[in-house]
Amino acid sequence: MKVLVAVKRVVDHNVKVRAKADGSDVDLNNVKMAINPFCEIAVEEAVRLKEAGVASEIIAVSVGDKACQEQIRTALALGADRGIQIETEGAVEPLVVAKLLKGVVEKEQPQLVILGKQSIDGDNNQTGQMLGALANMGQGTFASEVKVDGDHVSVTREVDGGLQTVKLKLPAIVTTDLRLNEPRYASLPNIMKAKKKQLDVYTPADLGVEITSHLTQLRVEPPAERQAGIKVESVAQLVDKLKNEAKVI
Amino acid sequence: MSELAVSELSPELVASLEAIVGKDRVLSDADSKAHYGGDWTRVYRPAPCAVVLPGSIEQVQEVVRLAARENLAVVPSGGRTGLSAGAVAYRGELVIALDRLNSISDFNPVERSVRCGAGVITEQLQNFAQEQGLFYPVDFASAGSSQIGGNISTNAGGIKVIRHGMTRDWVAGLKLVTGTGELLDLNRGLMKNNAGYDLRQLVIGAEGTLGIVVEATMRLARPPQDPVVLVLGTPDMASVMEVLEVYQKRMDLQAFEFFSELALQKVVEHQGLQRPFESPTEFYALLEFEQRSEADMELAMELFEHCVEQGWVIDGVISQSVAQAESLWRLREDISETIARWTPYKNDISTTVSKVPAFLAEVESVVNGAYPDFEIVWFGHIGDGNVHLNVLKPDALPKAEFQQRCGEVSRWVFEIVQRYGGSVSAEHGVGLLKKDYLHYSRSALEVDLMRQIKRAFDPAGIMNPGKIFDL
Q1: CATH number of the domain enclosing A99
Q2: ipTM higher than the 0.90 cut
Q3: Could you give the dihedral angle defined by the CA atoms of residues B261, B264, B270 and B272, in that order, rounded to the nearest 10 degrees?
Q4: pLDDT band for position B89 (cuts 50, 70, 90)
C-alpha cells in the first residue's frame, strides 16, 4: 500500500513570533523554521504503518519554495522513501494546496493520504477536508488512532465530548491530531541516508493547477497585552473584588 | 561557636529587628524557619533562631550591625537550591533572606549590563535579557528558583560553562555588606581595573563567609542563534573524550554533557521521555552548537561520520526543532530530579578534562568493588572536567546505614581526587557537606590564608560561620 504524507515548513512552534513593524505579516527574518508538528505526527504514523508491514512505500510531499526541501529531507530521515516538492512562491492558501495535492494523488494513486489536521501558522484546518472533496475520497479527521484492515481503515476521531470511530473505504484521507503518536527523533545515520533519497520537483503547471488567490491578508497585529495583576491583602478583599469588580461570583 | 547562636531571640532583639525591617518581616514560626533555614540538601535539620526579610541594602546593613553588636551569627539565604548546605542555618543562627531585593534596573545597552538585587531569580534575569534581545548564559536545572546573590556566592556553573564560563565571568561589579555592616562597592562595572586587588573575585564563591552580596551588575551576552542538540551513543568513556576532542577542535560547542545508560534508563522510565534511539550504549554525549549556516550542520554531520568510522560513536540523533532540542536536553537535565527518590549520595568532583576517563574508571572500580549492590549513576559537564557521581540507595538498605557506608566511599573517592589533582567540589561549593574533605583539594597553607581573609572581612566571625572551614 502506497502512503502519501504532506509536510509543511512553518515557524518552529517554540519560537515567539512577532508582527512586522508595518503590520503586513509575521516577521520571518532569521526565525527558526521546522516541520509543522501535526505533519510530523503524520509522517510518524506512515512510518509505523510501514514498520507494521501495512504500507509498502511512503511519499512525502511539500508545497513551497526551495527551503521546504529541508522539511522533506526530515521526513525522508524519519522513514519516508522519496519526496516531492511542488515549487511555489509566497503564501499559498488551503484550496490551492488541496488542488496541488490532488494532482499528486492522481499521479501517484496512494491508498492512504495522511495530513496534519492543521498547520500551526495559518491554523486553517481546511486542506485535508478540501482534498477529500476534490479527490472524492472519504476522510477521517482529527485522528487519535488509525487501523488499516484489508481495504478499509478505521479512524478514531477526537470530537467534542469524546471519541468517534469511523470506517472508511480505501483510498482515504486521514488528518492527525496530537494524541495519535509521539514522533521519533531523526537519527543521524538516517539523516545521511536521506540525502541520497529521490526528491522530485514539480511546478503547479506539471500538475495542471493554476495558482489563483482568493484571500488577501489585511493586517497582522500582536494580541493585546495583558494587564498586570494585583495582590490582595485578605480573603475578604479577594471575594469582594471577585463579586464587585470582576463580577464572576 | 555556640555563643554566637541562640534557639530563640529575646523579645528585645525581635523588637529591634522589627524596627529595622518591619513587623511582618521577622519570622519565627516553625514553617518559616524550616523553609528559609534550609537548602536542597536534606542532611542537616534547619534550626535558625529567626528569619528576617530586609527590603533594602540599608536594612541589610542595619541587621548585620545589630547582629555584630549582639554577637549573633547570620546565614544569608537566596533561592535555597544549594547542594552543599552552604546556606543551612543549623544551630540557631539568624537567617537573612534576600528574597525582597528582587529588582532589575539600570539596563545599559552599550555596556550590555544590568543591575540586579541579590534576590533576583536567575530565570527572571534570563527573561529580562531575552526581552532586550540579549542572553544571560549561566543556566542550570534550578534556574527557576536560584537567585543571583546565591549564584555569585557559590560561583554557580551549570550546563553552558564550556562556552560561557561560570557566574564569575558575568559579574561586572557587586555590592557586599561586610561582617561589620559596612558596604563595599566592588569594581563598579569596570571592564579594566588593575588598581590593586580585585576583591570582587574573593567574594564570588565565598559562600557568604565574607559578607552578604546585596546587589550585582551582571553582564549579558549576544543570544545564540539556532541552537542544535546532538545526542550520541558511545561504547565507553574514552570514546566520549575522543568525541569531545574531535568536535571541539572544529566547532564552538555551547555544551558538552554526558550521562550513563543507567541515568538514561531512570529518566526515560520516570519522566515518560522517549529514548533518543533504540540501541542502548554505555554512555551518551549531549552536544549543543550554534547553527549559523548550513555549513555548521554539514560539519557536525561530517564529524559524526568520522566518529562512527573510528568506532567512538554507535548511533546518534540531532534535534530538528527547538521542541526536540528541549526534549533532548531533558534527558540530561531531569536526571537529578529523577534520582532524588533514591536519596542519592551525590558528589560533584572535577579534574582536568583529559584525565576524566581514567579517573572515572578508578572511582567506579573502587565503589563497585566495595559495594557491588550499589547502583552508580554518572552524569556531568564532561566538557569542563566536572562529573557528578551519584550512588543510589538500595531500597532495602536503611538510610542511616547507607549514609555511613557512603561516608567511607567519600574518603576513597576524595583520595583518588587528590591523586588526580582534582577538586572535591567543582561547582556546588563546600558548605557544611564538604568541609571535612576540603584538605583533599586545598593545602593547609591555602586554608589558613582563607581564614585570615575571612577575619579581615568579618572580624567578629558572624558571617555564615562554620561553612567551608572552621575558624
Answers
A1: 3.40.50.620
A2: no
A3: -130
A4: very high
